[in-house]
Amino acid sequence: MSDSKDFDVKTDSGITSLGQTPFPLKTSGGRKYVRIELSSPIQFHLLACKKGKIKLTKDRTSGEILNLSEGGMLLLTYSPVPEEGFVVLTLNLNKFVVLEGVLGKIKRVEPSEEGDFLVGVEFTSREELEKFTSPEQIEHLPVKVASFGRKLREIISSYLRTTELGTRQM
Question: In this structure, are residues 47 and 85 in contact, taking their beta carbons and an 8 Å threshold?
Answer without folding.
Answer: yes
